[in-house]
Design a protein that fits this description.
Rossmann fold; ABC transporter transmembrane region fold; binds adenosine-5'-diphosphate; binds magnesium ion; 65% helix; four-stranded antiparallel beta sheet; alpha/beta; 10 strands
């Protein structure tokens, strides 16, 4: 019950709308209660056997009331269902805003599918409770009390007979509703599995064909599909029980009234008009009896969903959005930095310096911890031992850190927008000249011009697909355009051929020297010219120095260099 009140608090800002809706609803209900009385008067005057003018009046009145009911039914829908849609819209927006605020560790422990389910199914359930759930409960309470009163007024003994079958009716709706809900969730779950399968197979179609695994893919799909089918059937079973049992109990009530009511009518204890009106009130009462069971389910579902959404909304980002904001130059120092994602350390006792006006490089095999280092400097994960201009990273606002740094991540990400928007990402109203300049610096301008729409070419699903190297160069242009005091390239040239790589680096030489540039690469050709080079292995710094000195040591760096020279000679990239 407390949960339901918490849920209801969501509509508090819209209470005027809701109140208006409820008032209109009660007017409609009230008119519905009047109609059987008009019928009674009409039938009673018919029973006299002569046609009177009052019959035309009754018919006209009922017609008029019907028009009013139709009119007002629109308005309670408009007010209350409309309010629930507003709550839904706001909740969805808050949820999205919250997700965007969260840090990578939050997304690491959650499946995207689950978050999507919260954003869709749960928010739908909340909307249902606040819209139709609210309406149905007010409607059921008012209609049942009003029609019961009218029935008792006609003849209380008959009312008792009519009520005998209703408690089981409410119970059955409640019970079946619960079952339907349970199996509906199972069915939805099955459906997600099914879509996930299809998504995976379509994304992996080349692998499936390359390994001749079409048959296996079909078999695996078939299994999931059959599982889904059996869940649908279970759901259908309970859903199909609904209508028949409702009808059964409703008809039992009708039967009771017909049987015992006839005695009363014949004996003259009630008039014929009363008899007809009684039937009408009974009809009005059946729906609330069904609604009680149904509403309880809807509210339970709504408040359970609300709890799930709330649990996510209550989570705070691990990295608090606070700290000093301005006045940073961008000299980065790491002191005894140790870090582990979960358990085994990915970085061990790292000491490094990245200073303004210098180009510093990090090399090492995959998995040696290079990208982890970038994640920590950008403060995607909490850590200790990073200083910017002598200030501990923990004391600087994360926004300030990210403003300071331009990053070209290892995994290039382009949005399904135009090339211009992709390069200008994160800059308010970037001008075309600057975008072109950045593209030229990244050696991608000429290739963009060859595309059908140039800079306005749409990328992604509905647009063109670029090669890995082209994508990387667009990502580099994006970072260059930002003109950041600190520039980090995390293996940003890995898909570019060595010839283009050389040209880009030559192009950017001066640009790099004007700031604090960190180049991470597994390819030595890209970083030879750096002022200082750190060699990493297994989360540790194993060597450091300038290119010539490192070669002379004949250690890991030397080995990597020899191997790459050999690959090049053999015609690799
Ligand atoms: P590099 O960039 O040098 O290839 P990474 O920094 O990506 O290396 O990885 C360093 C180590 O940390 C690897 O052992 C990797 O498996 C692990 N690692 C990277 N990212 C995560 C993560 N999100 N969760 C857990 N372990 C991770
Ligand atoms: Mg990496």
């Amino acid at each position: 019950m407390r949960d339901i009140f918490r849920l209801l608090r969501l509509v508090k800002p819209l209470w005027k709308r809701i109140l208006a809706g409820i008032v209109v609803l009660i007017i409609v209900d009230w008119i519905q209660i009047i109609i059987p009385r008009i019928l009674k008067a009409a039938v009673d005057s018919l029973a006299s056997g002569v046609f009177t003018k009052s019959l035309i009046y009754y018919a006209g009145l009922i017609l008029f009331l019907a028009v009013i009911i139709a009119f007002f039914r629109f308005w309670w829908r408009f007010f209350v269902i409309g309010a629930s849609r507003i709550v839904e819209r706001n909740l969805r927006e808050d949820f999205y805003r919250h997700l965007i605020e969260m840090d990578p560790p939050f997304f690491m422990k959650r499946k995207i599918g689950d978050l999507m389910a919260h954003a869709t199914n749960d928010i739908d359930a909340i909307r249902m409770a606040l819209g139709i759930g609210m309406i149905a409960s007010v409607d059921a309470v008012f209609l049942s009390i009003a029609s019961l009163t009218m029935m008792v007024k006609i003849r209380w003994q008959l009312t008792l007979y009519a009520l005998i079958p209703t408690p089981p009716l409410t119970f059955i709706t409640y019970y079946l509703g619960k079952k339907v809900h349970h199996h509906f969730e199972k069915q939805q779950e099955g459906f997600s599995l099914l879509t996930e399968k299809v998504r995976e197979f379509i994304t992996g179609i080349r692998i499936i064909k390359g390994y001749n695994q079409e048959k296996g893919a079909v078999n695996s799909f078939q299994k999931t599909n059959i599982e889904y089918y059996s869940r649908v059937i279970k759901l259908m079973k309970f859903m199909s029980l609904f209508d028949p049992s409702l009808w059964l109990f409703a008809s039992m009530s009708m039967g009771m009234v017909l049987w015992f009511g006839s005695y009363d009518a014949i004996a003259g204890r009630i008039t014929l008009g009363d008899f007809v009106a009684f039937f009408n009130y009974l009809d009005l009462m059946i729906w609330p009896m069904i609604a009680f069971g149904w509403v309880v389910n809807i509210f339970q579902r709504g408040s359970a969903s609300f709890k799930r959404v709330e649990r996510i909304m209550k989570e705070k980002p691990v990295i608090p959005k606070e700290g000093r904001k301005g006045g940073l130059k961008g000299n980065i120092v790491l002191k005894n930095l140790t870090f582990s994602y979960n358990g085994s350390p990915a970085l061990k006792d790292i000491n490094m310096e990245f200073l303004q006006g210098r180009q510093t490089a990090i090399v090492g095999l995959t998995g040696s911890g290079k990208s982890t280092l970038v994640n920590l400097i950008l403060r995607f994960y909490p850590s200790k031992g990073i200083y910017i201009d002598g200030i501990p990273l923990e004391e600087i606002h994360p926004d300030a850190v990210r403003n300071l740094i331009g990053i070209v991540p290892q995994e290039t990400f382009l949005f399904s927008e135009t090339i211009r928007e992709n390069i200008g990402f994160g800059i308010e109203e970037p001008d075309m000249e600057k975008i072109e300049w950045a593209a030229r610096m990244a050696k991608i301008h000429d290739e963009i011009m060859e595309l059908p729409d140039g800079y306005d070419t749409l990328l992604g699903e509905k647009g063109v697909n670029l090669s890995g190297g082209q994508r990387q160069r667009i990502a580099i242009a994006r970072a260059i355009l930002k003109n950041p005091p600190v520039l980090i390239l995390d293996d940003a040239l890995s898909s570019v051929d060595s010839h283009t790589e050389k040209a880009i680096l030559e192009n950017l030489k001066d640009y790099f020297r004007e700031r604090n540039t960190i180049i991470i690469s597994h390819r030595i050709s890209a970083i030879k010219e750096s002022d200082w080079i750190y060699v990493m292995d297994n989360g540790k710094i194993v060597e450091q120095g300038k290119h010539e000195d490192l070669l002379r040591k004949e250690g890991l760096y030397y080995l990597l260099y020899q191997r790459q020279k050999l690959e090049e000679a053999l015609g690799g990239e």
